[in-house]
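Entry:
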Amino acid sequence: MIVYFDTNVFDHLEQCNGVTTWDLFRIQRAIKHGCMRLVLSYLNIEETLFIVSSQPKRADARIRLILELADKRLFVLGQEMIMNNDIRAYAGATQAPSPFMAMPPWVEVEIRNLAKAVGHYSQKLESLIDETRQDKKVFQEFLIEGRAKLKPMADSIGGKQYPFANYWVSNSGWLVEGLARRVRVLGKVKKRGVDGLLKVKSVALAVGANLSLLYSHHMENCTPASGDSRDILHAVLASTADVFVTNDKRLEAVLARVPVDGFRVMSLRKFLSILPQWV
């Protein structure tokens, strides 16, 4: 079983927040005995580095836990590369390349040094944090602006009259065509069938996470948050796994209604319940 942990899961495990040391031991044992393999995500690392300046000990402990539990042979590629590879493979009726690579040793050394923020790594970390903060701000402002324009119309319709299933049918097609157009394979995709591309996990979750998040803003009175952009990235990266584990109830609800085969989203507590009893 390939598993992807949201960053909050690593945090809760390390802090024993809502879980116990026994729960962590069971996960370690499941990994040791081959019941599960945990994806190593750069996004987990980025989000942890974000707290180095304010909570250095917590950040260092979380980084160490991530690098201990995650499979270094399952270092996931960037979300854009994953999607583009999958779209091109679908368009050409070929097998998509692996979404993983082995983490080079020098990258692990770099991460550990960034977590400690020693020497020139302090400046590199500050630059990384500033870039991330700006990306999140721009995306949140985009969502807020869109919500202000569309919310009055959404209120006049009402969520009960326009459930997410209808919203998906109305909008998923043109969104996925946009992705195929960006990769310059729209013609080939149309020949094979746009609906077929929506069955590719990375594409379904990219389109679905965006649509479901927008639906929550426009039809369910949720307010755009600074972490929304990262939630969408997590969804695409998690498409490489069988199970996405998150303790963010809102994100779980947003992704659970996206129609995609071979993918489950659940809380850490639920995930622990599906591990074999002997673990």
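The chain is about 65% helix and 5% strand.
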